[in-house]
Amino acid sequence: MSARLSKPLVLPNGASLKNRIAKAAMTEGLADAANCATDRLATLYRRWSAGGAGLLITGNVMIDRRYLERPGNVAIDGPQTDQQLDALKRWTAAAREHGADIWAQLSHPGRQTPKMIAAEPVAPSAIGLDLPGGQFGEPRALLNEEIGDVIERFAHAAAIAKQTGFTGVQIHAAHGYLISEFLSPRANVRDDEWGGSLENRARLLMRIVDAVRAQVGSGFSVSVKLNSSDFQKGGFGPDDSAAVARWLEARGVDLIEISGGSYEQPTMMDMDGLEARYEEEKRESTRQREAYFLTYAEEMRAAIKTPLMVTGGFRTRAGMEEALASGACDVIGVARPLCVHPALPAQLISGGVDAMPAFEKTLRVGPGVFGPGSSVDLIRALNGFAAMAFFYQNIFRLADGRDGKDRMALLWAFIRHQRHEAKAAASLEPA
Ligand SMILES: Cc1cc2nc3c(=O)[nH]c(=O)nc-3n(C[C@H](O)[C@H](O)[C@H](O)COP(=O)(O)O)c2cc1C
To answer: Is 163 in contact with 155 (CB distance < 8 Å)?
Structure first.
């Protein structure tokens, strides 16, 4: 039994998480054509709850049906029908069956809205993504009054989350989605109160946190997922992130989850070298650790007392215990391994398992030029997409009551996933 992993955590609002392992957010793609929760989501979360993590953070729950990250996202947009409320309640009841907390990750994808959802996404400024493949349309800048609407939508979704049995919310301010775009001086070149200085760029996040708190009250958990850095020249960097974290602490946020990167620079999924890159950025000595953002977490810990969750790369009990013992973080976020083996948290806590499979290190479409470390950009991108398809397909398997699969024909998983998403997008009811 791991005393460190099994120790409950009391949050600033007085709520208590039953242990230190959290299932980090993973978009499920399991909503129906009206972006309503389904019983497959309930099945999935019942299994993750039985799997022992103290906290289950949902995948992106969108606050505006016009701008989804994926066609199968759950959305809480506008007044909810009894049927929608009941579906959300069934989802949270299943997730809480084994004593886990469930927090809804509230999100707006900004310019990372796929073209199949919106030809013209919205963003702080009309600056498109620097990505090949034409999957994303050129965004337009949000009007001032539309920014007010975004804030209200986050607050409304949080109120519905509370009403339907979620025990907290997480505001997604990382990974290049809308709030993260506002924080970034590369994506946000506005010259009004929402752009320019860091204080202005962080205004959207702060207003959302305040509006959400005003809706849910002091006993409900409010968390933020924040980038340590965008890992892009001239982007949102570690010092900016520490300043934003201090402002969040002053606002009484209950937990900050540290991640990093965006679609342009997907460091949150990185397999190697990230910690080294971060160290390089900070001009410090290079230390190799399994978790990607621990060095940064240590610095943030020195700046604030708010509980910290670090996600990305944790694969061994020893690595997790060390991170907790050092005080760098309070909660260990785990994502990919739980798509295949939902019971790993309980096994790590009991001591039955020492390490989780690091699927990301081996998932490649093939050997030779298609193998690990290919220097061909296109093949590296294909490897990345195929690896994601592997996790998506496994999430579907768990939601259908089947076991996860350690191996899969990756090219086939990729094609199946692409087909599925196109079909789901085509059958979406109008927003
Ligand atoms: C299939 C999949 C879906 C994901 N969806 C989300 C999401 O909806 N929101 C989010 O903040 N992060 C998302 N992530 C990122 C994870 O939360 C996490 O930051 C990342 O996988 C690194 O953690 P890991 O090394 O434990 O997998 C997703 C990751 C995967 C693999």
So the answer is: no
pLDDT of residue 270: 62
Residue list, ligand 1 pocket, CB within 6 Å: 24-27, 59-60, 105, 172, 175, 225, 259, 268-269, 311-314, 334-336, 388, 391-392
Ligand 1: distance of its center to the CA of 396 in Å?
15
Half-sphere exposure of 341 (CA within 13 A, CB side): 17
Evaluate whether residue 135 is within a structural domain. yes
Name the E strands within 301-407: 308-311, 331-334
- Could you report the per-residue pLDDT of 37-53, keeping only the tens digit for each? 999 999 999 999 999 99
Per-residue confidence (pLDDT) for residue 324, from 0 to 100: 97
In a domain, 402, yes or no: no
Tell me, yes or no, whether 365 lies in a domain. no
Q: Check residue 225 and give its pLDDT.
A: 98
Task: Count the domains in the chain.
Answer: 1
Query: Based on the number of CB atoms within 10 Å of its own CB, is 64 exposed (0-12), middle (13-18) or buried (19 or more)?
Result: buried
pLDDT value of position 370: 64
pLDDT of residue 274: 40
For residue 382, being part of any structural domain is answered with: no
What's the pLDDT score for residue 362? 78
Mutate to test the pocket of ligand 1, among 26, 61, 274, 275 (most ligand atoms within 8 A of CB): 26
- Tell me the torsion sign for CA atoms 323, 342, 394, 95: negative
- Whether the per-residue pLDDT at 83 is higher than 60: the answer is yes
Instruction: Give residue 172's domain range.
Output: 3-356
Distance separating alpha carbons of residues 336 and 395, to the nearest angstrom: 10
pTM of full prediction above 0.85: yes
Q: Residue-wise over 27-57: b if at least 16 C-beta within 10 A, else e?
A: bbbbbbebbbbbebbbbbbbbbbebbbbbbb
CATH no. for residue 160? Answer: 3.20.20.70
